[in-house]
Automatic annotation (TrEMBL):
Organism: Erythrobacter crassostreae
Protein name (record): Aspartate/tyrosine/aromatic aminotransferase
Gene Ontology CC, one term: cytosol
Domain Aminotransferase class I/classII large: 27-386
Cofactor: pyridoxal 5'-phosphate
Length: 391
């Protein structure tokens, strides 16, 4: 039976990791893999996490099953950070823990489909797994251009997608720090998007995987909150894997906004059933550590300081790139106003290959770079290489 399967191409980024590891050059630069790195090039465990994990080891008394919804203390502790002071929006929001943001996106798509969604509009390029998840559950994707060639958001395209949508359509939006472009909507853009969603009734799914890595914990969810304030229903997929550095521990949450207790309860029961049928229960450890951090003001402060350091370092890298202006054929100025871990450089596949071969600079074939792969020690080499290869 298995011979009927078609070979699947391996993840391009994983192939890039292998090539980078095999490169003997000591000044090679890895801008491929999507994890934060310090100015020393490492991805250390957060101090706040270390302390919470120690507490877990010392105090956790059981590892007995929790249930498909996971650690509800974790789910609830996150809510004020995402939704604000009125963390349930008057009892209209319910959530559950998921295996990473990926689990949350998958659950959002599957539940929307179960509720009758037939098509999901999505700005492209996007995180490649968005399309893979939709393909896997056979939910039609309708792409529109997320960004303009000058590196700003294409607001007309998203508004046109919303206004032209059918009655069973949804729209997937990145809450902040768009992956891969780094191009986020302004407050005015979000206001127009929220109005258009409210007018047309298209179902919004907001994927927030980089909360706190753009401008700050409050700033990064202002757009999301402005949309939620206007709409009757929405799904929110959330990841703690970047903002708590938990990547492999798979920490995420899925939230439902509904317009009435009964609808909310019914939707939640369906999410629960879908979770039960897919992963049964989410992994506990990382979410338990995040819960301990968010319930302890000292640990919360340690975490917020660490997050701020990450944010400031990425801003410093972006500022330095923007200062470099135009290098070769690449205008670096837009990178200064973009947010988060990623941006896309307007380089060809051949130029990407040349950067790799001639300069030991590794990036995705799309030109996506991990901003945190640049340090004050290697950024000048990077800028020089861009000038040489694209000049
Ligand atoms: N959404 C987006 C836009 C992402 O970039 C990512 C992670 N790369 C995720 C969701 C999923 O994150 P996680 O690792 O928590 O599954």
């Amino acid at each position: 039976m298995l011979e009927r399967l078609d070979e699947q191409s391996p993840d391009a980024l994983l192939a890039l990791i292998k090539m980078h590891a095999a490169d003997p050059r000591s000044d090679k630069i890895d801008l491929g893999v999507g994890v934060y790195r310090t100015d020393e090039g490492g991805t250390p465990v957060f101090e706040a996490i270390k302390r919470a994990e120690q507490q877990l080891v010392d105090e956790q008394s059981s590892k007995s099953y929790l249930g498909p919804e996971g650690d509800m203390g974790f789910v609830n502790a996150l809510m004020p950070y995402i939704f604000g002071e009125d963390a349930t929006m008057g009892g209209r929001i319910a959530g559950m823990q998921t295996p990473g943001g990926t689990g949350a996106v998958r659950l959002a798509a599957a539940l929307a489909q179960k509720a009758g969604m037939t098509k999901l509009h999505m700005g492209t390029p996007s995180w490649p797994n968005h399309a893979q998840i939709l393909g896997d559950i056979s939910l039609e994707m309708a792409p529109f251009d997320h960004a303009n060639p000058d590196g700003t958001a294409n607001v007309e395209a998203v508004l046109a997608a919303i206004r032209g949508a059918g009655s069973n359509d949804g729209i997937l939006l990145h809450g902040c720090c768009h992956n891969p472009t780094g191009v986020d909507y302004s407050d005015e853009d979000w206001a127009a998007i929220g109005d258009a969603i409210a007018e047309t009734g298209i179902f919004p799914i907001i994927d927030t995987a980089y909360h706190g890595l753009g401008h700050g914990l409050e700033e990064d969810v202002a757009g999301l909150r402005s949309v939620l304030a206007k709409v009757p229903e929405a799904f929110i997929a959330y990841s703690c894997d970047k903002n708590f550095g938990m990547y492999r521990d798979r920490v995420g949450a899925f939230y439902i906004l509904a317009n009435g207790q009964e609808t909310l309860d019914t939707a939640f029961s369906n999410a629960n059933a879908l979770a039960r049928a897919s992963w049964s229960m989410p992994p506990d450890h990382g979410a338990a550590a995040v819960r301990l951090i968010l319930r302890d003001s000292d640990l919360t402060k340690v975490w917020k300081d660490e997050l701020e350091q990450m944010r400031n370092r990425m801003r410093q890298v972006r500022d330095r790139l923007a200062e470099a202006g135009t290098q070769g054929s690449v205008d670096m100025v837009p990178l200064g106003i973009q947010n988060g871990l990623f941006s896309v450089l307007p380089v060809s596949k051949e130029q990407v290959a040349q950067l790799r071969e001639d300069h030991g600079i590794y990036m995705a074939g799309s030109g996506r770079i991990n901003i945190a792969g640049l340090t004050m020690g290697n950024i000048d080499k990077f800028i020089g290489a861009i000038a040489e290869v694209t000049g």
